[in-house]
Amino acid sequence: MPSDCLAAHVKRRLPDASDLKLSISLGDNLSRGTAKTMIEAIAAGTRMRRGGRIVSDHRAAAGSCDFGEGARPTCRVSWGDVATGFYSTGIPDIEVHFEATSMVRAFARMPRLVKSFLGLGFMQNVLKSRVDALAEGPGKRRGARDGPLWWPSLATTGASRSALA
Fold first, then answer.
1. CB under 8 Å, gap of 24 or more: what pairs does 133-141 form?
2. What is the reported pTM?
3. How far, in Å, CA of 86 to CA of 17, rounded?
4. Cα–Cα distance, 129 to 138 (Å, whole number)
5. Least confident of 25-39, 64-78, 93-107
6. Residue 65 near residue 23 (C-beta atoms within 8 A)
7. Who's near 101: CB < 8 A, 6+ residues apart?
8. What are residue 102's DSSP bridge partners?
9. CA Rg, the chain, in Å?
10. Helix, strand, coil percentages, rounded to 5, for the chain
11. Up-side HSE of residue 142: CA atoms within 13 Å toward CB?
């Protein structure tokens, strides 16, 4: 997983980091697999790691990240890096944010009851079948950039910075 490698790299650059915020901009490059992973996580709320433990929050906290063209709004999401990043870095507090595209904002603002309904098996099948109708693979759509952008931010007690800056 490229983001795990990136997390381990930035941890080596700032070894006393205690917090990792991984921001991801997918732009128009949402692959079928990424879309299906997002669908599978709908009902679970937003997962993050606090004190080394995975916890859930039913709201998607807002944030921002400069992916190279000025600050863009982000939303906290449930993503595998919350689990795997702890093992590759040892950092106890981890969260993942996606650039807040209209689709990400729509999912983030959904009421809990709607998210629970969309998490039911038959609804998961309906949503995934809709995803299967999308163009195959990222970057096939006109104007899409070549791939996602990842931006890690690390914090230590009393300080915060990007390990790539």
1. 134/30, 134/32, 134/35, 136/32, 137/31, 137/32, 138/26, 138/29, 138/30, 138/31, 138/34, 139/29, 141/28
2. 0.79
3. 12
4. 17
5. 25-39
6. yes
7. 26, 27
8. none
9. 16
10. 35, 30, 35
11. 0
Looking at residue 92, what is its pLDDT? Answer: 94
**Which residue matches tokens 């993942």?**
96
Nearest to 104 by CA among 145, 148, 69, 141: 148
- CB-CB contact of 138 with 25 (8 Å): no
Which whole number is the average pLDDT over 36-61?
Answer: 88
Name beta bridge partners: 160. Answer: 155
Instruction: Report the percent of the chain where pLDDT is more than 70.
Output: 85
* CA dist., res. 62 & res. 130, Å (int): 27
3-state secondary structure of 85: helix
Alpha-carbon distance 79 to 66, whole Å?
20
Mean pLDDT along residues 30-44: 83
In order of 42, 63, 66, 102, 136, the CA distances from 147 in angstroms are 24, 22, 16, 19, 14
Helix (H) or strand (E) holding 50: strand 46-50
